[in-house]
Amino acid sequence: xxxxxxxxxxxxxxxxxxxxxxxxxxxxxxxxxxxxxxxxxxxxxxxxxxxxxxxxxxxxxxxxxxxxxxxxxxxxxxxxxxxxxxxxxxxxxxxxxxxxxxxxxxxxxxxxxxxxxxxxxxxxxxxxxxxxxxxxxxxxxxxxxxxxxxxxxxxxxxxxxxxxxxxxxxxxxxxxxxxxxxxxxxxxxxxxxxxxxxxxxxxxxxxxxxxxxxxxxxxxxxxxxxxxxxxxxxxxxxxxxxxxxxxxxxxxxxxxxxxxxxxxxxxxxxxxxxxxxxxxxxxxxxxxxxxxxxxxxxxxxxxxxxxxxxxxxxxxxxxxxxxxxxxxxxxxxxxxxxxxxxxxxxxxxxxxxxxxxxxxxxxxxxxxxxxxxxxxxxxxxxxxxxxxxxxxxxxxxxxxxxxxxxxxxxxxxxxxxxxxxxxxxxxxxxxxxxxxxxxxxxxxxxxxxxxxxxxxxxxxxxxxxxxxxxxxxxxxxxxxxxxxxxxxxxxxxxxxxxxxxxxxxxxxxxxxxxxxxxxxxxxxxxxxxxxxxxxxxxxxxxxxxxxxxxxxxxxxxxxxxxxxxxxxxxxxxxxxxxxxxxxxxxxxxxxxxxxxxxxxxxxxxxxxxxxxxxxxxxxxxxxxxxxxxxxxxxxxxxxxxxxxxxxxxxxxxxxxxxxxxxxxxxxxxxxxxxxxxxxxx
Length: 681
Hints:
This protein is mainly β.
């Protein structure tokens, strides 16, 4: 979604059937018209002149209102700001076949009530969370024609003040009134389990993988609300049968059949901006042996691009294993000597679950656990395995842990046995040990499964859990500068029951300043796969897609296809509306990047070796977060003497000069383990 500031009113029509008979739409069509005024008032009307107005939320203070539009995706939005207030109201015309979907998200000074005033000169009637305004037939007590405001799908508590005609939402300080439904599944384990990852953001889209009861499928969304149709990847029974990992360019998945003689398989692909995935090769067999079983894979790639998979192996006993690919081009190749590697043979348990975590410079950390025992870690230093180290506390179930790296250290959260608190500890590489343990949240219940993510802009941690202290609620706490929040943020409230408090999975790290969360609702099939995301505060975030770079020796703006993705905005730690957000036109970014690339030169001392992903953060001290897009062009290939198959990743730091004008402050080309800084005159 690319929103651009609009300075005059917008009129948009939604085509709908003229009538419905027993749920069957008529062939004749009519429209619902939306007139978006720059002052924040939306007038909704139909061809029979029934109408009502949706007014800006009431705050009791003066607010600044800005109107935005994404004409390509049929989205209109209002940005409402005041001191301690920032709210986005989105009107999505494609999200539903016959309705316009409204989503509201933001931050207010304290938890409380968000009031949306509705006004109309027409008769109104409230039925089943739907407020209708129209021409009323008093004989039949029915509307002859009407327009309405429907909040049946809202996930927070809602009431209607019939005196003031306010729709009143109970919200937390940070809220999202309408998490989206990605899809449905016939299995109640579609998104299981906490130690795995199944979502990320790439190429201007949120991506969610889940099991639909028969297959492993994915859907994607440009705005986190309207989702594509499902794409089947392969047959799969439930979510724990597969895991995904996004490395900044490629998505990787591993799948285990859980049957005798069944294969452990692997595949790599490139997520595209149109919602498709271009696979590097057919699905590859990573491990298979007659009479042996493999279960519960977790997948990642090391800093050199080689795939690693942790899994449970059974051959007379259940033990945790890890294996590594022989190739880093999307094919598995010949498994290196020493792999698959048995992490331990001390205990046989069918509840072993393995997380493989990527560190720097080809180093890795294996984390493995089973029910009622301490969690074990063992590091790979790039050439050999170290010794086992263990946490102080034991985990309730092996799968209910979640880990994320920060450099060569690894943060770990899990649900502890007996009293069921969420415990946080950090594996420290230099000492090869776990730190002292901290209680993130007391007793979340034996069914809880916390998940962990890291904001790459400032290394804040986000720990999510569900169902405690209140059922149907999803909470999180942040860890800032080494200290966890005292009180949890009550983030999401569902009207339906959660399928399970351990069905959560989240982004490994933030992407374009957002952390996405997947969970499930309903206790009978079909189950809902639900999604929401947090927007990280602070920092300036841009996503730049480099579709082509042509004629590097004489590059002009019109020859560059640069596109700003997401909201093209800046959020700072300030309260005044004029200071908090700028609208940045995508053309400004294109021109700025083009001017930098024109007459480019290479700084010899800017070429560095080692892990590119970590070097880009540590070596150049760039506080802003950007997604890297793979490009391939004859000019780049010629300059760097690359093969035609080579891909170069482009990383840009952008600063805002003023409304509609930006400047590229740093630009890099990355190839494998090399990072080259580009400068212009």
